[in-house]
Amino acid sequence: MEAPEIPVEKSTLSNGLTLFVAEDHHSNVASVQVWCEAGSLHEGDWVGGGLTHLLEHMLFKGTDRRTASRISEEIHEVGGYLNAYTSFDRTVFWVDCPGIAVRTALDVTADMLFGSVIDAQEMEREMDVIRREFDLSYDDPDRTLSHLTFESAFHVHPCRFPVIGLRRIFDKIDRDSLLAYYHRRYVPDNVFVVVAGDVEAQQVKDWVQEFFGPAPSLPSGAVTLPEEPAQVGRREAVTQFDTTLGYFSLAWHLPRVTHEDVPALDVLAIILGGGASSFLYEEIREKRGLVHGIGAYAFTPAFPGLLTVSGICGVETIVEIDERVLERLAAWRRGALTAGDLAKAKRIIWVSSLEQLQTVKGIASDIGTNWLYTRNLKFNRRYLRQVEAVSAEQVCCAFDRYLNDDNLTVTSLRPKSSPKPATVRRSSRKPNKIRILANGIPVVLIPDDRLPILQGSLVVRSGVLAESPKNNGLNRLYSQSLLKGTTNRSAREIAEIVESLGGTLFGDSGYNSSRLAFGALSEDFGQIVSLVTEILSSPSFPDEAIERERTSQIAAIEADEAHPGVIARNVLRRAVYGDHPYAMSVLGTRASLTNIQRQDFV
């Protein structure tokens, strides 16, 4: 199988700014993304201060031509949505909009990037906003664990600092320092523009020249990043946290994305913790019940990264969980890597890459990531070919080379005691079709032949709207327990079938409905549909699975109780909706979940 090649036109302005255009007339939408190679790694003397993140906020606060309100209003008036994000190695400003609004999107984003005034009073107000972000992050166990992991694993490389920065350094930022950083990093040589969607390439080139061309060509302010020395012994860090659960992470250093071992490492991460049939999920959660959730992920950017195994467990397990995980990893290495596990992991990586290309935003992000990391627009296609060629021996060699004790960092959190367009292009997308089955169930078909992927959702009107205070949380518990076996198959067998196809299958429930979502490559879709039919017609609802999911749902409630934003949202719901079901949580309460019995499902 070969990944589809996205036709991209590349051009460079005289000032050094690079443009990529991918025409896609499937629908009347486009994504405009302006990538600036300014991330928290590039802050120089201010590294660890969060200068880049603050600057991202400030570029929304007004230019010589536009007030802060006009920036957002102009995008909204043409039916677009504007946002941005900052990471270790980039800041990306993006607009999703109709194709006819691309000119406006380019005009506004160019003005933001190269015409910001960085007003002193606005800067003080925005620093206060970010201080509140700091406060929220201190109450977020996932962020706290991530920060603890990176600062423990990296002692020299600047990725040891969180993107938002450290409060003690952030508070010292002054306007002159922010302006100097702005003028040093936001120059055309550090910026590239990606436009994907319902556009004409030549017209986009003309607009980019019009709006980005006047920016003067200036030195790019290159930053030399220090190399992280090889780790020479296991590291451990524990933080006391206001939580009723334990959060843990085991992290091993990995090479950068272009290293020849990365495809095998990505396959290894999927095999170990990439789904409900993965080794650690099955061994640690399903068989032994030691955790509420566990997964593995390989983070391999353009600089050295990490392979992490992380999860959530009860307080009685947190002290020993790292050793239990390491025991099972050693057991996995002693065993034989099956051809089925290898093929399943490759399929998952393949399907994930294809799914990103379903939207113009995903296409633009794929182009941007390829260019940022490797300066090769076809890198992802090459990477997928390398994944397909990975052997069992390469996976085991990668395990031995990287997942050793000298390369390991263990961290944990433990509890304390718009205008109308003049012209509109006709979409090339085929019209939706609605079929009514003999039993009266409507089926909506949405054709899309760009990629060999099919996805579906079976939706039932239910959710919180169909619950009472006594059985609140029933539909969420039902949706999670539904996949735990049929009269013919175990939960393990179901997960094996889905993940061997690189497919997706999950249940969910919200306020108005519950759904069973599924997807796979077109050639495998019949197998997924057949499995869904079996699950719906003959679920077994094993008692032990219901209890396990009930415990996990209660753990999710406890996690929410430690999150100020969720607490505020729940208080607001009760105040607004009173006795209406919308006042209740999707998760339910400890008391209501205790009331739910297996017979409530059948």
Please specify the SSE layout and strand pairing.
Blueprint: E1 9-12, E2 18-23, E3 29-36, H1 51-58, H2 68-77, E4 81-86, E5 91-98, H3 102-115, H4 120-138, H5 141-153, H6 167-170, H7 175-185, E6 191-197, H8 201-212, E7 235-241, E8 246-254, H9 262-273, H10 279-287, E9 291-299, E10 305-313, H11 321-334, H12 339-356, H13 360-374, H14 379-389, H15 392-402, E11 408-415, E12 433-436, E13 442-445, E14 453-461, H16 474-481, H17 491-500, E15 504-509, E16 513-521, H18 525-537, H19 543-561, H20 564-577, H21 590-595
Parallel strand pairs: 2-6, 7-11
Antiparallel strand pairs: 1-2, 3-5, 3-6, 4-5, 8-10, 8-11, 9-10, 12-13, 14-16, 15-16
Helix pairs in contact: 3-8, 9-12, 9-14, 9-15, 10-11, 12-14, 16-19
Relevant terms:
602 residues, alpha+beta, six-stranded mixed β-sheet, 42% helix, Cytochrome Bc1 Complex, Chain A, domain 1, 19% strand, 21 helices, five-stranded mixed β-sheet
